[in-house]
Amino acid sequence: MKKFLWPLLVFPLFLSAQKSPFNSEAVFPARHTYSTGDTLRIMTWNVEHLVDELDDPYVNNGRENNGEIKPEKMKLLAQALKMAGADVIVFEEAESANVVEALRDSFFPDLGYQYIADTRSRNWYQNVVILSKLPIGKMISYGNVHTPVVFEEDGENKYQTQNYINTRLWTCELLVDSTYGLYLSGAHLKAGGGNRNEAMRLGQLRYWQKEMEKLLKAEPEADIILLGDLNSYRNGNEIKTLLEDERPSVKLYDPLAPEINSHPADAPSHRLDYILYNQNLSDQVIPNSAQVLQPFNPEDMRAISDHLPLILDLLVP
């Protein structure tokens, strides 16, 4: 039997991928269509124990098993998120990306937050979770890093180390479009007063600063934001460490006046929550756009959380 050799038909491919601004071998999701337009709104909110009632057998913490999320809290939260209109949100005190995804699907599925990520702890029940309308690129967890805890107690100098809360500190690439992206670091630092807790926070922040210094040496024009619940007063040593750094590239800026407060939600008397940015981003920050949001009365805001949310608007270059 004579064999017929069919000509090889080559069809030109008219498909084109929108490439990541960070790495040309990474691309935007094929079905991604969202655009922020000329501005980008960033938001952070400690949502106070956003933990469901299901037991994750791999998280060895009793409070993770006993969570209770009231529907009235979630309905108010959904309304607040809709009113805020943020492109990117970082939640603190959320159990995991999985739980936030389930709550999104139940309470605010139509707001467009299709990208959700975290660097969750294996044994802690609260994590820092990002929800975004924009794709998320590489995400770096600092959870395996041991940071120093150097403090004075009872007249003695003490040296300890810790890594059990460093999962609540991460950095990710935020892909705005094919020509622009920024580095977003989410944080929920150690809570509490006293020398030891302050030393924990300072150890976490100094490690993060060194990481950003290394990043900026490789990418001098990198735009960087650090946001979240830093558990530090505006005049505390931790915030001074960030805002008064002698390295111009590492130094951060606070768009809110020192007297503006975010905690507690129903009667704010101090600030623990921040959206801070580096010098490279200064020209893109829209003046007076940084706000502590209070869309509802104090009682309803407290029903959502003991913290108030913060937002910041940026111009997209």
Summary, kept brief:
This protein is of the alpha+beta class and about 325 residues long. It has six helices and 14 strands. The longest helix has 24 residues, at about 195-220.
Description of the structure:
The chain has 317 residues and is of the alpha+beta class. The chain is built from six helices and 14 strands. The protein has helices at 62-65, 71-84, 97-107, 195-218, 237-243, 298-304; strands spanning 39-50, 88-94, 115-118, 127-132, 136-141, 147-153, 156-162, 169-177, 180-188, 224-229, 252-253, 273-278, 291-292, 310-315. A six-stranded mixed β-sheet has the order 3-4-2-1-14-13, with helices on one face. A six-stranded mixed β-sheet has the order 5-8-9-10-12-11, covered by helices on one side. A hairpin with a 2-residue loop joins strand 6 (147-153) and strand 7 (156-162). The radius of gyration is 22 Å and the shape is globular. The model is unreliable at 1-6 and 9-14 (pLDDT under 50).
User: What proportion of the residues form beta strands (DSSP E)?
Assistant: 25-35%
- Overall geometry: globular
Can you count the beta strands? 14
Order of helices and strands: EHHEHEEEEEEEHEHEEEHE
Helical percentage: 10-25%
Spans with pLDDT under 50 lasting ≥5 residues?
Answer: 1-6, 9-14
Terminal Cα span: 66 Å
Oligomer: single chain
Can you summarize the main beta sheet?
6 strands, mixed
The number of helical segments is 6
> Which value, in Å, is the CA radius of gyration?
22 Å
Mean pLDDT rating: 94
Strand order of the largest sheet: 3-4-2-1-14-13
Structural class: alpha+beta
